[in-house]
Structure formats: structure tokens, C-alpha cells
């Protein structure tokens, strides 16, 4: 779209004027961008190494074995150790630039003479502490956020595509097609979906994609009722009849006439679907039917935290992260809803 | 109206059949079915573990159980035939026997149901008791500091899922401050307590789970009440009432309030599904012996008769809940005539 309609512009103005939602949207966008660039600031690989006059950028790409820096091992270089080594060498030209948080989410960091979990501390660099196997919680939360948000956006796209297609077809064709899908939806909305997904997940051990598709398969119904009534209504309007009289086919009427007129309001459902997706993934991970370990996940952190209540930083970090993110997204959703439908009430007192 | 509900009841039949097909289909999803899977697991377990003298060993299944399960799922028969045989048993409320404990599934589930219903009913009552007055207050003070502040609190409770609030509560109020017990429905020594102690014990165990259960539906109800009342306050008939000389508070009480309660009635039946849906997580966190925990444990232990039984029974409850919702709406709002339009 090259230009926005005046209506869309007005909605955008209204959205911007709702400060709580607008700033939440900015905050969540920053979080998403930061999490997508997580490798650059939370990583056990160095950002940059200068060794014997050559520069290395290990962040992305293949691992650099220890031999690259004349260390006596073939596995991946331990850059934190390398940094300490370079520092201890007097007036050496070599240096290592580590990311802000020099740990990987799947890396177990062991402190000598102590067993994990380690408390949050500035000295060790684990600002939120580590989990039961010595993995940095901050790193796991950021990487877990990235997975959760990408997961829920993918889930949302699949559910919307199915929901819109089925709903629009139900409203457009009506009749037996409509009745058939009404029954299907009624069946699916009368079973405990979380439990069904747990059952299937316990049988097939899902990965990222299969879990998203599985969830989508049982949660596309929300959008259909809305699309169905909307298509039903638009279908009876004069412009659709006019298009039909001009000889437009089903697909032309559907995609060029009805959908553009009914779809914009779907934006108001978006943030709530994201919340739903994150919550679903976290619940499944918490119950142990989600993504396989060692995927960084908030649900798995919650699970560790509740089984080890004495290490409070574990559950507190996960609960805190969830609360912040879900509240921000809900604020955005509420503001969008208000921007689309500003209710001005008048009292007569 | 009557014909609508008659049709509604008749439609239970195809929906229920569909649900049974779905549930039955799940057991056929695994190549070889749950029986083969259990056998494989049992074999694996007995190979890795030294032969144990304990005949009730936690991993292995004996011949009897295998035969029983095979007969129960009818894996020796064609799919359609075994489906109808299973369906026939379900219709007679024979859900088979737990592969782990050997008890009839029906009894196991109905034993646990009261605990879940206890939480469900109390949650529902408390939610209505708190949300309706709060919603009214918020509608009347719309835009005032009280409205904004309570909105923020209610909203955060809405954004964070109930079970996460449950985890935070259990970790902070139970584990750290030790104000409440860590979990369970009642204490172990409940049987030997005096009546007042029993009540206190039950309440102590209920506070945190109830908070977690309520967190979700709380916001929805409060805002529903608030929005409905505000819409009605701005409606013409309230203006007419005040114009005719009714005081504002009377106009609210006698006119606006009644109509504002209708949307809450639509929500009534959904309470059943909320209870069942949230219970897997919350019952697990608080270790409450309801059907949610039963279902979770059955799944972990691959006790498929119980899993299927819970699916069938909770789906039935969902169905009833949805119809109950419609009844409530029709009862609360005589303007609504189901089935006469459309």
C-alpha cells in the first residue's frame, strides 16, 4: 500500500494519543529487535578478537577451534578464558571484545568449588543468576523471549489464514458448507484443547514447527465466527451485488471486494493473539509438553523454579519476564482497540 | 423458543459423536496405538532395570493388563467396529479400567470431581460478588483516579495468566513467608481435626488457588459489567427516566443495572470450561487432587483409559455449560428470541 486511507491515519493518530499503549508498543518493539540481535550482546562467542595482527569476528558463522589462537584444543574457543589470558600477558597487542553478557543460553558455566544454581551477582556476571544446571538465566530469558515471540507470530499467521479462509467461505457460500463447519467448530470448541494438545505432544514429541501447527489446528476457530458474520453482511450489500452483476467471479468478489472491507478490524485481535500464543507455549513448556530441551524457554524456567522454590531468583525471573511482556502487549492491544472504536459516553445526571 | 432449545439438545448428539471420534482418533494416532507404546516402554524399563521383586513395579505391565488394554481399544478388530464397541461402552458410562490402578475410570473421575467443582463454584461466586460491585463503581467513576488505578491492577491480572500468578503466590506467600500451606486440598491430618480446625485448614489451603483461578475471569467480568452499565447509562431510556424526574441513582438501580447484568449471564456457562481449562496448570501447581491433576498424571503415566475418560467427561461438561449459557441469556433477557431470526 503506497498511501494510507484517511481512516487508517485517524486511527493511528488516536493510537498515538493513548500514551500507555503507544509507549508499550515502542518498548515491545525495542525488545523484539534486541532479542533478534541477541547474538550480538548475549553470547559466549566474542564480538571481535585481535590476535597476532589479524581480526576475527566469531559471532556468526562457523566455530573457530581453539587452535586458531594457538590454544591446545580443537573444540570451540573459550573466549572468556582467552580474554583473561590476553589480559594477563604483559603489554600484549592481542585483545578480545566480549558481548555485554558473555554467556550463551545453552552453556553451563561452572564456578570452581560451588554447585549451581548460582545466585544473581555482579561479580560472576550472572545478573539474574543461573538455573539448576548453571545456565545464565538472563540469556535464557532473552533467547526464550525470541522463541516465544517468533512462535506466537507464526502461530497467529497460521490461525488467521485458516480462520479467515474458513470463516469467509462459511459466510459466502452458506448452506451445507456453513452447517458442516459449524459442527466442526462446535466439536473443537467443546473439547479441552490444552489437554488434547498435551496428549498429541506426549505421543509425537513436537519441534517448533509441529507444535505451532498442532496448536493452530486446534485454535483457528476464534476468527471464523467473526469473519463469517462479516462476510455474510458484506455479501448482501449493493456493491457486492453490483460486482456480481458485472460478472465478477467468486474469488474476485471475495478477495477484491469483501476481504478488504472486513479485514482491517482484525488488527484489534492481533496483540491478544500474541498474548495467547506466548501463554500457550509457556504453559506447554511448563507442563513438559512443549519444545524439547535444551530450548531456552520461560515455561521450563517456571518449572525449574517451582520445583526448587528455595532458589527464588529462578521463578522470580521467569514470572517477572512474563508479567512485563504480557502486560506490555495487552496495553498495546487495549490501545489499538480503543483507537478503532472510541466510545464516548454521555451521561445525563 | 422451545423449538430452538429442542434443536439445541438434538444437536448435542452429532457434536458428542464428533467428540468421541476425535477422542478415539487420538488413540489411533500412534502407530500401533498406546498398547504397543506401553509394551515398548515396559520392555525398555525392564531391560534397563534389574528384575525387581516388586510385582507392582512402577514401569512394567503384566500380561493381564496388556490383554485388557488390547481388548479395551479393540486393536484386533477393524477400526469402525472397535469404535462402535467403545462408543457403546461409553454410552453405558463404562469407561474401562485404569491401566495403572485397575479401578474403574468412571469412579476414579467422579471421586476427584467434587474437588474441582468446589474450586469452580467458589471461584464463580466470589468473582460475581466482587466484579459486579467493582464494575458498577468503575462505571460511575469513569475517568476518575479510582477508575484508572483499579483498571491498571485488574488489567495486569488479566494480562498475566492465572497459573503464573499462582506460581508467584505459592513461591512468595507459601514458600517464603509461610503464611499458607504449599499445596494440597487439605492437610494430611485433616481427618483428626475438630470442625473449626477443619474449616480453617480448608480456607488456608484455598486462598492461593482461588486467587489464581479468579485472576483470569476477574478482569473480563469487571470490564463487561462496567462497559454494559456505561452503555446503558448513555441509552435513551435512562435519559427518559431521568427526564421524567427519576433521580440518577434510582435510574441506575431500577433501569440501567438490570439490563447491564445480561452480558454477565452469557458468561455463566463458560465458568465450567474456565474451571476445567485452567485446572491442569493450577491443580498441578497447588497439588490439588482434582480432575486436572488426575488428567495430567494419567498422561504422564500413559494411563490412556483415564485420559480418554477425562476427555469424554469434560467435553460433556463443556457442552452442558454452553447450553446453560444460552438458557441464562434467554432467562435474563426476554428480548432475546433464539432461533426465530436467522
Describe what this molecule looks like in 3D.
The complex is a heterodimer of chains A (349) and B (342). Helix content of chain A is 61%, strand content 3%. Chain A is mainly α. Chain A has a three-stranded antiparallel β-sheet. The longest helix of chain A is centred in the middle third of the chain and has 37 residues, at 137-173. Chain A is elongated and about 85 Å long. The two termini of chain A are 47 Å apart. Chain B is mostly helical and 342 residues long. In chain B, 75% of the residues lie in helices and 0% in strands. At the A-B interface, helix 6, helix 7, helix 12, helix 13 and helix 14 of A face helix 1, helix 6, helix 7, helix 8 and helix 9 of B.
Draw up the topology in text.
The complex is a heterodimer of chains A (about 350) and B (about 350).
Chain A: H1 6-17, H2 19-36, H3 38-41, E1 48-51, E2 54-56, H4 79-88, E3 95-97, H5 137-173, H6 175-188, H7 193-204, H8 208-219, H9 221-235, H10 238-245, H11 250-262, H12 270-287, H13 298-307, H14 312-340
Antiparallel strand pairs in A: 1-2, 1-3
Helix pairs in contact in A: 1-14, 2-14, 5-6, 5-8, 5-9, 5-12, 7-8, 9-11, 12-13, 12-14, 13-14
Chain B: H1 2-27, H2 33-48, H3 63-73, H4 79-91, H5 105-140, H6 145-159, H7 162-176, H8 195-233, H9 236-243, H10 248-260, H11 262-268, H12 270-286, H13 291-300, H14 304-332
Strand order of the largest sheet of chain A: 2-1-3
Please give the largest β-sheet of chain A: 3 strands, antiparallel
Shape of chain B: globular
Structural class of chain B: mainly alpha
| Averaged pLDDT of chain B | 77
Per DSSP E runs of 2 or more residues, the count of β-strands of chain B stands at 0
What is the alpha-carbon Rg of chain B in Å?
25 Å
Gyration radius from CA atoms of chain A, angstroms: 26 Å
Mean pLDDT of chain A: 86
Structure classification of chain A: mainly alpha
Largest sheet of chain B: none
Oligomeric organization of the protein chains: heterodimer
Spans of at least 5 consecutive residues with low confidence of chain A:
none
Strand content of chain B: under 5%
Amino acid at each position: 500500500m503506497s498511501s494510507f486511507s484517511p481512516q487508517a491515519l485517524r486511527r493511528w493518530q488516536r493510537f498515538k494519543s493513548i500514551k500507555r499503549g503507544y509507549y508499550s508498543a515502542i518498548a515491545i518493539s525495542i525488545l523484539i529487535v534486541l532479542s533478534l540481535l541477541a547474538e550480538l550482546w548475549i553470547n559466549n562467542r566474542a564480538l571481535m578478537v585481535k590476535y597476532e595482527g589479524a581480526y576475527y569476528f566469531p559471532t556468526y558463522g562457523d566455530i573457530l577451534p581453539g587452535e586458531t589462537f594457538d590454544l591446545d584444543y580443537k573444540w570451540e574457543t573459550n573466549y572468556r578464558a582467552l580474554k583473561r589470558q590476553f589480559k594477563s600477558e604483559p603489554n600484549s597487542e592481542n585483545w578480545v571484545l566480549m558481548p555485554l553478557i558473555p554467556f550463551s543460553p545453552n552453556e553451563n558455566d561452572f564456578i570452581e568449588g560451588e554447585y549451581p544454581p548460582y545466585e544473581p551477582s555482579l561479580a560472576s556476571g550472572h545478573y539474574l543468576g543461573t538455573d539448576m544446571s548453571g545456565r545464565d538465566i538472563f540469556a535464557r530469558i532473552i533467547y526464550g523471549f525470541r522463541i516465544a515471540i517468533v512462535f506466537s507470530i507464526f502461530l497467529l499467521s497460521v490461525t488467521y489464514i485458516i480462520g479467515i479462509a474458513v470463516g469467509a467461505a462459511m459466510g459466502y457460500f452458506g448452506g451445507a458448507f456453513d452447517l458442516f463447519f459449524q459442527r466442526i467448530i462446535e466439536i473443537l470448541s467443546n473439547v479441552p484443547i490444552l489437554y488434547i494438545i498435551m496428549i498429541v505432544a506426549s505421543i509425537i514429541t513436537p519441534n517448533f514447527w509441529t507444535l505451532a501447527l498442532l496448536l493452530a489446528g486446534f485454535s483457528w476457530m476464534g476468527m471464523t465466527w467473526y469473519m463469517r458474520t462479516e462476510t455474510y453482511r458484506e455479501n448482501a450489500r449493493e456493491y457486492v451485488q453490483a460486482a456480481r452483476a458485472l460478472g465478477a467471479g467468486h474469488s474476485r468478489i471475495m478477495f477484491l471486494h469483501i476481504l478488504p472491507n472486513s479485514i482491517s478490524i482484525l488488527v484489534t485481535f492481533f496483540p491478544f493473539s500474541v498474548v495467547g500464543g506466548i501463554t500457550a507455549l509457556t504453559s506447554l513448556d511448563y507442563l513438559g509438553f512443549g519444545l524439547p530441551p535444551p530450548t531456552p524457554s520461560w515455561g521450563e524456567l517456571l518449572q525449574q523454579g517451582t520445583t526448587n522454590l528455595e532458589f527464588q531468583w529462578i521463578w522470580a525471573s521467569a514470572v517477572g519476564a512474563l508479567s512485563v511482556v504480557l502486560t506490555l502487549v495487552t496495553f498495546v492491544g487495549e490501545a489499538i482497540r480503543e483507537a478503532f472504536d472510541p466510545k464516548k459516553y454521555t451521561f445525563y445526571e | 423458543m422451545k423449538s430452538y432449545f429442542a434443536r439445541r439438545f438434538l444437536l448435542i448428539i452429532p457434536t458428542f459423536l464428533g467428540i468421541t471420534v476425535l477422542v478415539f482418533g487420538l488413540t489411533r494416532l500412534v502407530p500401533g496405538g498406546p498398547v504397543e507404546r506401553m509394551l515398548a516402554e515396559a520392555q525398555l524399563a525392564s531391560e534397563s532395570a534389574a528384575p525387581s521383586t516388586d510385582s507392582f513395579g512402577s514401569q512394567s505391565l503384566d500380561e493381564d493388563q496388556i490383554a485388557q488394554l488390547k481388548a479395551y481399544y479393540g486393536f484386533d478388530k477393524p477400526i469402525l467396529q472397535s469404535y462402535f464397541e467403545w462408543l457403546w461402552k461409553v454410552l453405558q458410562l463404562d469407561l474401562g479400567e485404569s491401566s495403572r490402578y485397575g479401578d474403574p475410570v468412571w469412579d476414579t473421575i467422579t471421586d476427584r470431581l467434587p474437588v474441582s467443582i468446589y474450586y469452580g463454584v467458589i471461584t464463580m461466586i466470589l468473582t460475581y460478588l466482587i466484579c459486579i460491585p467493582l464494575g458498577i463503581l468503575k462505571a460511575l467513576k469513569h475517568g476518575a483516579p479510582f477508575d484508572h488505578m483499579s483498571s491498571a491492577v485488574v488489567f495486569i491480572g488479566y494480562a498475566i495468566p492465572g497459573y503464573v500468578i499462582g506460581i508467584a503466590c505459592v513461591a512468595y506467600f507459601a514458600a517464603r513467608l509461610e503464611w499458607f500451606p504449599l499445596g494440597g486440598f487439605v492437610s494430611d491430618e485433616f481427618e483428626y481435626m475438630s470442625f473449626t480446625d477443619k474449616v480453617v485448614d480448608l480456607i488456608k489451603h484455598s486462598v492461593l488457588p482461588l486467587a489464581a483461578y479468579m485472576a483470569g475471569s476477574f478482569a473480563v467480568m469487571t470490564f463487561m459489567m462496567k462497559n454494559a452499565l456505561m452503555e446503558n447509562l448513555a441509552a435513551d431510556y435512562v435519559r427518559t427516566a431521568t427526564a421524567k424526574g427519576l433521580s440518577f441513582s434510582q435510574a441506575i438501580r431500577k433501569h440501567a443495572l438490570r439490563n447491564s447484568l445480561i452480558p454477565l449471564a452469557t458468561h455463566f456457562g463458560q465458568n465450567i470450561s474456565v474451571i476445567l481449562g485452567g485446572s491442569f496448570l493450577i491443580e498441578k501447581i497447588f497439588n490439588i487432587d482434582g480432575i486436572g491433576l488426575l488428567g495430567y498424571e494419567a498422561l504422564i503415566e500413559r494411563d490412556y483409559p483415564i485420559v480418554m475418560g477425562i476427555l469424554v467427561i469434560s467435553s460433556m461438561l463443556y457442552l452442558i455449560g454452553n447450553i446453560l449459557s444460552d438458557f441464562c441469556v434467554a432467562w435474563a433477557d426476554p428480548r432475546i428470541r433464539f432461533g426465530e431470526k436467522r
